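User: Fold this one for me? It's PA domain-containing protein.
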Amino acid sequence: PPAAALVLPVCLLWELPAAKAYIRAVSHHNSSMQFTDLPAIFGYPLPREGLVGLLVEAWPANACLPLKAPPSNSSVFIALVRRFNCSFDLKVFHAQQAGFLGVIVHNVGSDELLNMVWEDDQLRRHIT
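Assistant: Here's what I get for PA domain-containing protein.
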C-alpha cells in the first residue's frame, strides 16, 4: 500500500487524550494535505513535538479483524483505518497487535467529527 510521511501532534493510540489534534500528510510527490480531527478519549498522549511516521492503509480497511502487519523495518507506521462496522477500541487493538504505533480512523461518506471512545473496558486496558 502507498505510504506518506505524517506529522501528528496529538494522541492516537494510548492513555490520556490531547486537547487538540492536527494531521498533516505529505505524499511522495511532496504535496501535503491537512485534516480536521479529534483525539481519542483513550490511549497515551503523543510527544509534545508530535509524531512523524509512514501512513499505511490498513488491511482489512475497517480493522474489525486482525490487521496485516506493516513492513518489517525500523520505521514508525501509522494505520489508516475506515470508520464503522466495529468499535474504535477494537480497531486500535488490532492495529497495535499488528505493530502499528498509531491509528487514524477516517470517516466514510461524512465529514462529522466524533471523539473515539472505547466500548470494552477490558479491551481498553490491553491497549498500550
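One thing worth pointing out: Strands lie at 3-7, 11-15, 22-26, 32-36, 43-45, 52-57, 77-82, 102-106.
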